[in-house]
Amino acid sequence: MEVKKVQVKSMNFSEELNKRTSYIEDVIRKFLINENDYRNDRQIQIYEAMNYSVLAGGKRLRPMLVLETSRLFGGNDKDVDPFMAAIEMIHTYSLVHDDLPAMDNDEYRRGRKTTHAVYGEAMGILTGDALLNYSFETALKGTLETENKENALKALCILANKAGVFGMIGGQVVDIKNNGSAIDLDTLDYINELKTGALIEASMMMGAVLAGADENETKVIEQAASYIGQAFQIQDDILDVTSTSEVLGKPVLSDEKNNKSTYVSLLGIEKASLKVNELTNKAIEMIKSLNYENEFLFELIDSLIYRKK
Ligand code: GRG
Of 123, 162, 163, 273, whose CB has the highest number of CB atoms within 10 Å? Predict the structure, then answer.
């Protein structure tokens, strides 16, 4: 098969990963509100809480998927910058809200106290709201500034759809509605596809459309990303029972604490691991079938199978 675009093959995956992570940190910081510029604002605390939660680290997987999927289709890095920041803001808002007393009621996240534990519950709620809003403000400003307005508008639509009731929030609703009761694999897949899969889909689809991928290519990316999202969630469930809170930076055994059915509780660790492998390989094959090349992206997806945090 003819390969349409060739990228320089990654020499050393972890070195390349570090390079991209630090690039993404810079991009995210650039789009956040610099609290020092607004010291006299009466609402200064909300800027501090937003920065506290977003700048706590994290793997930055979603922005990395935006960037690398755009590169897969030969996109321009500058066009994706605001969308990388926007998806990380939405992801962080979901974590801040997920940790609230009304949800999982967790005290630690990304190796530090959760936002509500530091700033109080009301501020925790507002921080999530603020990040969600600021995410769209960031993506909209990026859209006004880019020459590729139509592609940016398509990306915005994807972001709104996948973060909302047809995506992440929808998944969280089904999860909450089933809280404490035993669920079957079908319901679990439904929750995982929306709750975790939707933002991974948004990340990769935005990268694709911003780089000018056509409708069919974007559909293939959506399906592959859905597999990656499901695999990512199952691996998250495996780590919840096999890792430590020091490594993960958040509590372990939280699914048991919250009475949640997972692939691990329903099928056991071995079958759950096989499922992660199977879904990941399917995703890589699908993306490769498009005939574009981005060795780093393939290695990144593959690395998620073996991730330790
Ligand atoms: C309350 C209106 C309202 C909305 C909340 C809470 C929520 C919507 C959605 C939950 C989304 C959620 C927490 C999904 C779990 C996905 C998951 C495995 C998150 C962890 O992602 P990582 O490992 O985290 O990429 P880091 O910290 O590395 O970024």
Answer: 162
| Ligand 1 contacts CB of residue 255 (under 6 A) | no
User: Ligand 1 in contact with 58 (CB < 6 A)?
Assistant: yes
∠ CA 283-167-182, nearest 5°, is 85
Q: Where are the domains of the chain?
A: 13-305
| CA gap 174, 156 in Å, rounded | 25
Please write the tens of the pLDDT for every residue from 185-203: 999 999 999 999 999 999 9
Q: Whose CA is nearest to atom 9 of ligand 1?
A: 94
pLDDT of 2: 41
Position 154 pLDDT exceeds 60: yes
Ligand 1 contacts CB of residue 110 (under 6 A):
yes
Question: Which candidate, 162, 168, 161, 150, places its Cα nearest to that of 214?
Answer: 150
Name the residue among 16, 33, 12 with its Cα closest to residue 24.
Answer: 16
